[in-house]
Amino acid sequence: MLTMQEDLLADLRRENGVALMFVDGEFGPASDGAAREIVNPANGEVIARVAEGTIADADRAIAAAHAAFYKGPWGDSLAQDRAKLLNALAATIDEHAGELSQLETLNNGKPLRETEYDMADAANCFRYYAGLATKPHGQTFEVPAASQSFTVREPIGVCGQIIPWNYPLLMAAWKLAPALAAGNACILKPSELTPLTALRLATLIVDVGFPKGVVNILTGAGPVVGHALAASALVDKIAFTGGTKTGRSIMQAATGNLKKISLELGGKSPNVVFADADFDTAIDYALFGIYANSGQVCSAGSRLLVQDSLHDRFVKRLVERANKIVVGDGFDPKTEMGPLVSRAHQEKVESYIKTGIAEGAKLECGGTRLEGDLGKRGNFIVPTIFSHTTPKMRIVQEEIFGPVLVVQTFADEAEAIALANDTIYGLAGAVFTNDIAKAHRVIRKMRAGITWINTYHPTYNEAPWGGYKQSGIGRELGTYGYDAYTEVKQINVNLAVEPSGWFADR
Ligand code: NAD
Predict the structure, then answer these.
(1) pLDDT tens profile 46-75
(2) Which of 118, 218, 246 is the best mutation target for the ligand 1 pocket, counting ligand atoms within 8 Å of the beta carbon and taking the most?
(3) Are the CB atoms for 378 and 41 separated by under 8 Å?
(4) Rounded to an integer, what distance in angstroms lies between the CA atom of residue 440 and that of residue 446?
(5) In this predicted model, what pLDDT tens digit does every residue of 270-292 receive, in sequence order?
(6) Is it the case that residue 2 has pLDDT exceeding 90?
(7) Which distant-in-sequence residues (6+ apart) come within 8 Å of 315 by Cβ?
């Protein structure tokens, strides 16, 4: 294991055993030399030490991005040149996908089959935005004057980008690809728990030849370097993916210079199953909706709403299937579900399980750590299902972000919709039924930004991603994601060049 680990870390730039952050085209330590230990969630072992950025490091990264955009050639770069760089980055991610997915599994814990998927998706995200960079973006307007009026989209400038630990490289791609395609300079701050693939990406960014300062990878604590990005008057836009509470504090910090802001936050998404649904398909996606990535997915189908006439049969089968999910080390090819990202997060999920029991919900299965040696060392929680819940329970209302499914029941369509919308969140939701008109009626009433009919979770680089209500502000991915990294400029060209005569020439 140690050899494989060393192999995976070999391509990170390190000094005295510390993986270095990437600022202004150079790899370097933190200004005070501090480093943070990075832990393998599957066994609690320290796998790396990473430079722990300071405010001075954040300021340096911001200055580098600022110079690259406002003084360097990047601000005037051509879309076709940016597209070439992004295509080259996509190609090199594909080329290194095996190594990157192993590094991701080592750091985040999720099974290799998931990280392999994530790496392909990340490469495709860079490729998609490489294509979009050179496509038409403005509009022209017929105005009541002899004027040619049109808009162009221009980069916003310096973008701070703060991402979570649940899809480390994929979230980096979602942030960097559209921002760079549009011509911005970026400071990406990965989660302090999972910085390794972002630091490896920095080496690939050097290889493909991005100019210095255009991409900076700033490692360190959220309240320190993340806050510095959100508060800086030199940062023109802040884009954040993470918890709703953190999103709120970032929004407050961003008010100083009224920077542009995008927030992708938490969820408690409803997965609605009607009695007329295809039973096996609905069971399959109910499992996938909550247990993919151990439930550490913002859009997880964490509330299962089952029509009352189907409830008992559905929950019985679901429990049988959940109990068969193979939980283990992400490197074991048999593993279907990995550990939670950290011991602290495992304890948070356990405290929700205790809350659910105390609130009087029925624990149908799970609720415990994995047994045996692996379970003692890693942060595993086995698939857990609560039934007999009531809408106001904390386990129904609050995001648990773990492998804990809460089941609710409804009598009819109206009640399904009311329950589906009964949280502060509005990120995602699904409906399973063979009545297509009913499916559309329910989706129309669902207050959520991402919805599915007879499936759960498919996410496409081409389609917009984001939430209603307290699940966020703005959209990522697709053309919407590109637009979110641009300013719109109106240009009016006078086609009759002569004095207007508004003020008489006396
Ligand atoms: P988190 O909010 O704790 O951290 C996210 C990032 O914010 C990390 O990089 C962290 O260092 C940084 N951060 C923390 N405090 C900060 C501060 N005061 N100022 C600036 N930055 C700060 O979230 P997490 O625990 O890493 O991730 C889990 C959360 O992310 C869940 O709530 C989940 O729903 C959400 N999420 C949302 C989406 C989406 O697209 N909507 C996707 C993935 C995860």
Answers:
(1) 999 999 999 999 999 999 999 999 998 999
(2) 246
(3) yes
(4) 10
(5) 999 999 999 999 999 999 999 99
(6) no
(7) 306, 364, 385, 387, 407
Distance separating alpha carbons of residues 404 and 389, to the nearest angstrom? 13
Q: Which atom of ligand 1 is nearest to the CA of 191?
A: 9
Quote the pLDDT of residue 72. Answer: 84
Q: CB within 6 Å of ligand 1 — which residues?
A: 162-166, 189, 191-192, 222-223, 226-227, 230, 241-243, 246, 249-250, 264-267, 298, 399, 401, 427, 467, 472
Tokens of 486: 């641009």
CA of 428 to the centre of ligand 1 (A): 17
Please write the tens of the pLDDT for every residue from 408-456: 999 999 999 999 999 999 999 999 999 999 999 999 999 999 999 999 9
Which distant-in-sequence residues (6+ apart) come within 8 Å of 3 by Cβ?
none
Average pLDDT over residues 457-462: 97
- Please identify every residue annotated as catalytic: 264, 298
Q: What's the rounded Cα separation, in Å, for the pair 21 and 36?
A: 12
Q: What is the DSSP string of 100-119?
A: HHHHHHHHH---HHHHHHHH
Residue with tokens 């990522």: 476
Whole-angstrom distance, CA of residue 288 vs CA of residue 455? 10
**Among 96, 90, 93, 94, which residue's Cα sits nearest to residue 127?**
90
Closest Cα to atom 35 of ligand 1: 242
Residue 5 — very low, low, confident or very high, per pLDDT cuts 50/70/90? confident
Q: What is the pLDDT of residues 158-210, one digit of tens each?
A: 999 999 999 999 999 999 999 999 999 999 999 999 999 999 999 999 999 99
Residue whose tokens read 């295809």: 278
Distance CA 198, CA 473 (A): 24
Whether the CB-CB separation of 214 and 157 falls below 8 Å is answered with no
Distances from the Cα of 220 to the Cα of 248, 343, 425, angstroms? 20, 19, 29
For residue 4, is pLDDT > 90?
no
Closest Cα to atom 15 of ligand 1 = 222
Q: Which two tokens stand for residue 357?
A: 């029991």
What is the rounded CA–CA span in Å between residue 102 and residue 110? 10
- Among the listed residues 371, 127, 162, the one whose alpha carbon sits nearest the alpha carbon of residue 253: 162
| Distances in whole angstroms, Cα of residue 285 to Cα of each of 274, 366, 396, 451 | 14, 19, 19, 13
**Total-model pTM:** 0.97
At 224, give phi and psi (nearest 5°). Answer: -100, -80
> β-strands 46-51, 35-39: how paired?
antiparallel
**Is 344 in contact with 402 (CB distance < 8 Å)?**
no
**How many Å from the N-terminal Cα to the C-terminal Cα in the chain?**
89
